[in-house]
Amino acid sequence: MTPVQLVFILVAATTLGAALMVVITRNLIHAALWLVLSLFGIAVMYVLLSAPFLAVAQVVIYIGAIAILMIFAIMLTRRSTSEEGPALNANWGWGALLGVVTLGGLVWVLSSWPGFFAAPAPFPEGTDPLLTLGQALVSPNGYVLPFELASVLLLAALIGAIVVAWDRR
Amino acid sequence: MIPLSWFLIFSAALFSIGLFGVLSRKNAVAILMGIELMLNSININLVAFWRYQTPAQIAGQVFAVIVFAVAAAEVAVGLAIFISVYRRRRTVSADEIDLLKW
Amino acid sequence: MADPINAIAEWLQNLLTGWGMAPGLALVIRFALGVIVIATVMLVLDIFLVWLERKVVARFQVRLGPNRLGRYGLLQPFADVLKLLIKEDTTPLGADKFLYNLAPIIALATVLLLWGVIPYAPTIVGADINVGVLYIVAVGAIGTLGIIIAGWSSNNKYALLGAFRAVALMISYEVPMVLALLIPVMLADTMGINAIVASQNVWFIFVAPVAALIFLISAIAELGRAPFDMTEAESELVAGYVTEYSGMKFGLFYAGELLHALTMGALFATLFLGGWRGPFVEQIPILGAVYLLVKALFMYWVIMWVRYTLPRVRIDHMLSLNWKFFTPLALVVLIVTALLDRILEGAGASTLVYTLVMLGANLLVGWITLTLLRSYARRERVKVAEPRPVAVPPEPTGPAGGPVSAAPSVTPSTPNN
């Protein structure tokens, strides 16, 4: 068991445990904070996958904006200050069954693929993935079109969210 | 040396937990949290495949960055809808927002 | 002896591998020791900052400050810390105990995390990651989370309101801060902080003064210090999100705030004032740490100067200042800097020409902004000076409908004769 594998197992256990607490716990603010912990675990996973930019972007976007937005929304939509009652609806058994079946199905399908047990391919020498990512996002031969479309999407979401939540009183 | 299978099993498990959350939670914001877990598991999947199969092509990371943007946009609009619904119906429990049921 | 830190690290590494330890484990132990040393040094510096803050505010207010305990009052922070430690450790009724205790820890920890990426010398840096600038933004975002947890777990609506305001302020001011941080990244062609310092042959404050100013003001707003300290305005929100905190937990918040101010000063010094650059730093790397400390303390003094001179800004003014002034200005400066950078690099300009052209462009943008602001202020002044309709009371009518005499008739009471 190399140290990297040990780190992976610890981080994966923390993330999956936190994710489980997100979907089970009754108190919504606690669920939001467990979500923050699992998002942080995912950021560490990105570092293990040699993608430090994505790790830091994950913290900025998800934890710094999305999680805080969710906490604000929870606080603004609470019916009362007391507990909300049972967290799971009546069909939670079917949901759990479907989750387990999905997991089993995915693992079973993937294990019949020879690349499943592969080691990582060697990094191409001399190139900096960060530089390549930056150039790919703005080069016409690269991915500038999805990049611009994503920014238009964000603008549409911004305007749409303001219009939908506008208080017309 | 971490084999690819570990990352894929981890992301499949996270996806399943998110799926369970979406299907079984009452509160709409909690359902949105399940969706976030699923999106994150997909991102881990993309970046794992990028690192292990084609680290020379940056398409995997670009896809992950675009998924970041889409997830942020979706959360913003979703929460705006929930706040608007809360103003009318005073509830965000998915069981009780059923005006269109026949 | 030029670089004692690295010499000690090498000696430790050789010692541990000589004992038969795996080199990877020795590396981990070395880094863990580095973390402990940095955290300890920063927290000890924090205590010194309490004294510095009180002395400087006293001098700004033409008084002496603490001078009873020890020479020049240097033992005053120890008395403060002792007082905080022996205070009763209360938890409000109905508060979420775990989160209530977690919030001050997050607030202080996110400040210490920043010191891991600041380069102290050309060869001494905690973690030389190639996305250092984005890491700074990320850690600031986690700090925001600590404030929400503090406000919500206090079970106090004033604390919650204060936390909402503080978080709204902090996430709003992240936008011009990130845009201003993009400019040193563009000028140095890299996001790694050590590389940005190494590429500052001319300090970036001379090449991009408007960006430096925007970064400084956004950093002061992120810190929640005056003039942006609406969140702890004593007259309105009691104490904002720290209302329910007392004793050492409040001490952690307070110490975290002061250390955050020094950290922002050190970041400004690193990104715009050349960090560890100075004379003789290639021969004696440890001098770099001294230069950095001097520059960081100078910027901390500037932040304190702003705090104790300017009055508080209203919350809606703060937010409109951010969205209507700083963000457009930062975008304009970003575009101008990017264009000029490409043009000058393409034309192969020398360093002097580059610096002068960039400085001139920044001053031009600043002058245009000031002109626009002045005309806007003139229009606002004209609008405010217009005679406003004043409410006039209606003519008083008596019971018979006729006008009542202005003064009631006074019949002098005749004394009994």
Offer a concise description of the structure:
Chain B is mainly alpha-helical and 102 residues long. Chain B has helices at residues 4-24, 28-53, 59-89. The chains are: A mainly alpha (169), B mainly alpha (102), C mainly alpha (417).
Describe the fold and architecture.
- The complex is a heterotrimer of chains A (169), B (102) and C (417).
- Chain A is mainly α and 169 residues long.
- Helices cover 70% and strands 0% of the residues of chain A.
- Chain A has two domains: 1-79, NADH-ubiquinone/plastoquinone oxidoreductase chain 6, subunit NuoJ (Four Helix Bundle (Hemerythrin (Met), subunit A), Up-down Bundle), CATH 1.20.120.1200; 129-169.
- Chain A is globular.
- The mean pLDDT of chain A is 89.
- In chain B, helix 1 packs antiparallel against helix 2 and helix 2 (28-53) packs antiparallel against helix 3.
- Chain B is elongated.
- The termini of chain B are far apart.
- With 417 residues, chain C is mainly α.
- In chain C, 67% of the residues lie in helices and 0% in strands.
- In chain C, helix 1 (4-18) packs antiparallel against helix 2, helix 2 (23-60) crosses helix 11 and helix 11 (248-272) packs across helix 12 (286-307).
- The longest helix of chain C has 38 residues, at 23-60.
- Chain C starts with a helix and ends in a 32-residue tail after the last helix.
- The model of chain C has no long low-confidence stretch (mean pLDDT 86).
- Chains in contact: A-B, A-C.
- The A-C interface holds A 3, 29, 33, 36, 52-53, 56-57, 59-60, 63-65, 67-68, 71-72, 75, 128, 130 and C 24-25, 28, 96, 99, 129-131, 134-135, 137-142, 144-145, 148-149, 152, 160, 164, 167, 171, 174, 191.
List descriptors.
heterotrimer, A: 169 residues, mainly alpha, Four Helix Bundle (Hemerythrin (Met), subunit A), 6 helices, B: mainly alpha, 3 helices, 76% helix, 0% strand, elongated
Helices and strands in order, then pairings?
The complex is a heterotrimer of chains A (169), B (102) and C (417).
Chain A: H1 3-24, H2 28-48, H3 52-76, H4 92-111, H5 129-138, H6 144-164
Helix pairs in contact in A: 1-2, 2-3
Chain B: H1 4-24, H2 28-53, H3 59-89
Helix pairs in contact in B: 1-2, 2-3
Chain C: H1 4-18, H2 23-60, H3 76-85, H4 97-114, H5 132-153, H6 157-188, H7 193-198, H8 204-207, H9 209-223, H10 234-237, H11 248-272, H12 286-307, H13 315-347, H14 351-385
